[in-house]
Structures are given as C-alpha cells and as structure tokens.
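COURSE: Structural Biology Practicum
ASSIGNMENT: Worksheet 4, Part C
STUDENT ID: 0417
INSTRUCTIONS: Below are two proteins. For each, the amino acid sequence is given first, followed by its structure token string. Answer the questions at the end about the second protein only.

PROTEIN I
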Amino acid sequence: MPDVTVLHLSDLHLTPSQSAKIAWVRSLADLRPDVVVDTGDNMAHRDVLDPLLHALEPLRQTAGAFVMGSNDYYAPLPKNPARYLLPDARRLRQRHDPESLPAAELAAALTATGWKDLTNRRDHLDVGDLRIELVGVDDPHLDRDEFPEASVRPEPAGERPTLRLGVTHAPYVRVLDQMHQDRADLILAGHTHGGQLCLPGYGALVTNCDLDRGRAKGLHGWPGARPDAADGTGSTWLHVCAGLGTSPYAPVRFACRPEASLLTLTARPRR
C-alpha cells in the first residue's frame, strides 16, 4: 500500500485581521495531503467565520474530518495570563458568561464540502484503496465528550487495508485510553499549544489538561513510549499538534513555534 499523508491542523484561534495566517493556511494545500484533520479551536472572534472558511477553502477540496474545541463554541475572555501556569486552567472560574461563536455554522460549512464531523460519532473515509475508520469526541476540556459505541457493522470483505484514526481536541487521559482500547492506530489531538511557554532543555511548563508535559507536542506512544510493531499490541501512536495560534489575550509563545503537521503514514510490512 502506498504511503498516506495526513495534514494535522489545530488551534488556529483566528481573528479577522490575521491576513498573514490566513494566507499561510491556504498555502498548505500546496503540500497535497491525502487527508486533512482539524482538531479544533479554529475561532477567536465572533466575526471570523467567513475569513476562516476562506483560509480553509483550498484544503476543503481534500478528504477531511474535524472536531470542535472550546474556542469554536465560545469567544475568549480577558484573563490573567498566569492562569496558563496551572495544570488545568479550568480551575479558575470565569466571572462573565462567554460569547457564543458560530460553531454550528462552521460544522455545516465543513460537512457541506465532504469533511466528516466526528462530534461524538464514528464515520469513515475512502482514500484510494485505503479505508480510514474514524472515531471522535466533542471537546473533553468542556466535558462534552461521549465516546461513541463500537459499530456493529461487519468488517469490509477482502484484503482492503484499513487505518483506524481517533480524533479529539484536548488529549485528556480518559479519552486517549478509550481510543487506545478502541484499537486506534493513531490518535490526533491539539489543545496544548505545545505548552505555549516552554523552557529550553526543559520543555513545556503545562499542558492545560491532564496529559503529561513530555507529550505536550509531537509524536509519542499511548499509554507507553511507542507501539509494539512486532505484534500490533502495546501502545497507540499519539500525535499532539502544537497548533497555529494563541488566545488574543495571551498572544505570546516562547520556545514553542506555531505549527501545522504533515504526517506520512507507512503501512507495516506483512509478516
């Protein structure tokens, strides 16, 4: 089976004035990925839906899937930047009700061009001869995740290769464990911003969830260090994207560059 490339987007936190970011996201279509997966927190302003759809427009011609993050549902609020130094920033109560963002309209626009909405549901994509089985949850950071039951549909007949992807915005341990137990080959997540504030030689200070700091970004195994390629058991691959943006009220990264990730998946040789 030929290699499959997956473009992993996360945490754009887009505002209407970010023309350079919009142009850069549009240019990612030049990478010609086979699949695009968006792990949420796309919006950071109530009037950003049209600029966001313009940014994603070239990528929506490619097979894709998405989940939502908290900043797709609610606009950011001014906060003390020091709150990000807490292990889980939800511990601080917000004094004002956040403003709702057009998450439903975003979901409708993305599904209209064929992307799969994985909000607490399963779906699949066909990419050439490859069948990609998808499972996703709504944002665990808001406790909106409800892991969908396993499908009772029989496996496709024949020798058609299958890839199992788990998709979540925030990589909370409970969700990663569920996706591992569901036999995902790869889990894609965002939310952490790679730590956003990192120290050279030390890495991320926090992850803003219960994931350990050592897996704040990049490719790792879950729950162990790496999958056991010999027999297909052991850990699941986990990729956490450090994302492209920040809250407009904490627009600083240190030793943690913004990113989108292009993953090349290679089939394991038959034994």
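PROTEIN II
(use this one for the questions)
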Amino acid sequence: MSSINIKSEVKTLKKIILHEPGDELNNLTPDYLGELLFDDIPWLPLAKKEHQEFADVFRNNGVEVLYLTDLVEESLYNIEIKKAFIKDFLDDAKIVSQTLREVLTQYLLSIKDTKNMVNKCISGIKKTDLASYKKRTLTDYIDESPFVTNPMPNLYFTRDPFVLLGDGVLINSMYSTTRRRETIFGDYIFKYHKTYKTPIKYYERNMLPSIEGGDILVFDNKTLFVGISERTTPEAVELFSKNIFYKFNTEYERVLAFHIPKKRTFMHLDTIFTQVDYDKFTIHKGIYSDIVIYEVTRDLDNYGKLKVKKLDGKLEDILSNYANTKVTLIPCGGDDIIDSDREQWSDGSNCISIKPGVVIAYERNDITNKILESYGIKVIKISSSELSRGRGGPRCMSMPVFRED
C-alpha cells in the first residue's frame, strides 16, 4: 500500500505534515516585511505555543503529525545527497559568487547535525554567522542586507510549496522569488525519503508557470478544483491538467478552474473557499459573484489536447451537479459585509477537515464558527493571535499525506 493517499478534502485524516515556526520569524524586520510577504511580525514564543496546540488537536483526533524538518533530515541520509541539497539551496538563494558559495558550502557542512543545518537554511544565514565573511566584491559593498540568504518565514504554511495528490505529488513553482526556495524541501523528501519518496511528480519546481498549493482542492477521485489566482496562472492549470490526463493517465476526469480576482486579500482559492463536509463548503460572499468556473477535460478527438468549457449558473448549482447531491455554501462572517470582510482577512474560510463535518478553525473567527456549527459542522477552535499574522489559516498550515478511502 502506498504511504501517500489523498483523494478527498474531507475523508478521515491519518497523517499530516506541519512545520513549527522557528527563528525565521525572529529574523523578520520591518524593512523586509514586504519582500518576505508579511504584514506584521509574529511573536515567536506565542506563535510556537499556538502551533503546538494546533499539532495536538491532530494527535488527539488520531492523526499522525510529521514535521517537515524531520522528513528533510531523514532524506539527507548521506554526504552526496547533502552536498546536492546545499548546491540546490545556494542556487535558489541566487548565490552567484563562487567564493561565497564555497564559504557557505563549508559553513553548512560544518553543522554536523543535519536537522540543525536544515533549520539554519530556513531561519536565514546572517553575515555575522560566517566568521570568514568579508566584503570582497562590488555586490558585497553595495548590499546592505544583514543576510547572506534570507529567512523563510512563510514555510509554516506547508500547504503551498508542494501538494500530495492520489499517491503522487506536485512540487510547485512558486509565484514569488522569496518562496521559491521552499520547494527544495519537498523536492528532496519525495525524491529520497525511504517512506515517502514517489516517482509520480504531477508538477516540477522548475516548470515556469506558477502554481501554489492553496489553489488546489481535491474534490474526489474524479474532480479537482484549481484556483486561477494572484499566484496560480492559467498556463499552470493547463500544464498540470495535461500531466494528470496524459503523462500519468490518472483516473481524474476533469479540473474545475476557479478564476478569482488577483488580490493579496484572495491570494489563493482556499482563502475564500474550502470544503468542510461532502456537501458543504465555506465561501466568502464578497467574492461570490466574481468567481468564474471553467471545466477542463481531455479532448477525446485530439490526444494530448484539452477541452475548456465555461460553466454558467450559480456556484452551488455547479457544485451540486458534480457532487450528485445538493451542496450548501456557508458564508464566512455571515451576511454582514463588515463581518464578512474582517473574518475573511483572518482566514475564517480557511478550515482543515479531519473527518467529514469536523474541522479545525481559528477561534478568532467567532461569527463564522457559530454559523458553521449551526449547519451541523463540529468546529475545533485553536488559538491564533500570532499565527494569523502570517495571513494563512489551518488549511494553509497543513499538508495532508494520507486520508482513508
């Protein structure tokens, strides 16, 4: 039996990948917030406490928690793989000076504990970390950054850099330069890990069109939802569709492409829309009328080509058609525009299902949580004072590895 099995958003969850935030948050400073895609600086001690509470909810509900850094450590099990990882890391960090590459390679190899080395890559390498660092080139003199390689504060949103699907994986091509380095971890896990390696790569990190995990929802074993958003392009949806239809000849019959406005507020599909039961979805009503859906299928008359059809009608009717049952849309924040906008901003729509009708949600979105409960959804609420500052919710912070069929 495969160690990876994801054919649903809501079936009983058995394994999940998380990344507990670390020193990468302490290395956020006001001058670099925009570049690193943050609006504020979370306080690390409380962020870690909140994340540990989040992990415990999974454990208390029978879900095995796998940590990203442990999986990477277990994947870098010999010196050749470790050196290849360092080379790819420096390539992604755009270290072009050969001298500096040699200095950084020796520095990372000198960290004998592999997990500590991985954590240093994530937290960012400061110029002061390198005893031999000195200004040698024009770039060194002009670059005023305190870092040789920037921190990766977005990595606790494990949903985005890679996506497990069926018994394979997408290693995503990230929209922003600052997040492209995050995909290296998934690349090495699913290439070398003795339990989770897989030859099935529906997308590769070096493919040019950007696609991110928050835009991919696994409706069932026949239908996938993919957002066309600020961070996922229509070209990526087409390339991904061709791969699952033809290159890997999967059982998937269609991709429903949800075109949403390209705004940071709605950076991914799952910031405005998630599945919480077989027949129930959260929705941000402020975007309801702006969503346009296209069905992408195989072109049975032209092998290797796609057929695209714009779907007309109400969103709930379209979804009901594919679900073969009446679908209910549950409004984030209710009908009040102020409540709706506020709770969407703090990821009221971004729930992770641990079984049908049971979800984890931020406690701060109390209006949305009460509405979910009124529809029969059990809501397990977690603290979110600091975690929510990163602009992502429980679904963003988790990557399912195995759900029961």
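ANSWER KEY EXCERPT:
Q1: The radius of gyration is 21 Å.
Q2: The mean pLDDT is 93.
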